[in-house]
């Protein structure tokens, strides 16, 4: 049979059959004297098997290898590898769905879980994204983020944010000191293992933090805590 008939019986396109050939999954039969390839019933069975295997989640390379060596041992090895690959894909997709759900629930579209935890309002987003990236995969930072999501802690941070937003040139020093003490109390022990950022990175972070802040607020964020 010719390639068009093979493709029709296999339920795929001629282009797909040629792709099978290019990938090495389906051997190309020799050409006849008239220049056309002559496909056999075995070729059709192989094409059908490849289609079924790829539909089951196997890569084309794995499907071709399995079709070429139908022994039970080969089946088990290839299927086991395919199952591990599918499990990894499912885990990745599940994680992406969880992140999407968190973004939809919290209004933090496009943010990592860590950046979202550090963002209480829109102006927090740029520095939160940068900070989460600078400390990515850093265990003390991940513990800090986890602590910020604890019941009660989030509310305490929100209260600090409200007081910080109210700072201006008329804020008395006593109130600034009291707010500093409160910041230390809320974050006590959370950042003790967090290494300081290099000077250049800290400058980038402060550049983002300073946007929209008045003089008093800028001075406050530079206080030692």
Automatic annotation (TrEMBL):
Keywords for the protein's UniProt record, in alphabetical order: DNA-binding
Domain HTH merR-type, residue spans: 1-69
Coiled coil start-end: none
Entries under InterPro entries matching the protein: DNA-bd_dom_put_sf, MerR-type_HTH_dom, MerR_fam
Record-level Gene Ontology MF annotations: DNA binding; DNA-binding transcription factor activity
Keyword Repressor: no
Stretches that traverse the bilayer: none
One Pfam family, short name: MerR_1
Protein name per Swiss-Prot or TrEMBL: MerR family transcriptional regulator
């Amino acid at each position: 049979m010719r390639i068009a008939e093979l493709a029709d019986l296999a339920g795929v396109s001629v282009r797909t059959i040629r792709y099978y050939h290019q990938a090495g999954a389906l051997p190309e039969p020799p050409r006849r004297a008239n220049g056309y390839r002559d496909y056999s019933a075995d070729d059709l069975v192989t094409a059908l098997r490849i289609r079924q295997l790829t539909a089951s989640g196997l890569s084309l390379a794995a499907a071709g290898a399995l079709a070429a060596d139908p022994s039970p041992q080969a089946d088990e090895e290839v299927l086991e590898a395919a199952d591990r690959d599918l499990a990894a894909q499912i885990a990745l997709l599940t994680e992406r769905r969880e992140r999407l759900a968190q973004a939809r629930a919290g209004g933090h579209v496009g943010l990592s879980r860590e950046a979202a935890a550090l963002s209480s309002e829109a102006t927090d987003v740029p520095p939160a994204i940068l900070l989460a990236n600078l400390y990515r995969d850093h265990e003390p930072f991940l513990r800090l983020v986890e602590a910020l999501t604890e019941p009660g802690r989030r509310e305490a941070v929100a209260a600090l944010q409200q007081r910080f937003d109210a700072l201006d040139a008329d804020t008395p020093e006593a109130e600034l000191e009291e707010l500093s003490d409160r910041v230390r109390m809320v974050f006590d022990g959370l950042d003790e293992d967090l290494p300081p950022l290099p000077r250049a990175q800290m400058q980038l972070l402060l550049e983002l933090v300073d946007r929209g802040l008045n003089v008093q607020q800028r001075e406050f964020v530079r206080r030692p805590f």
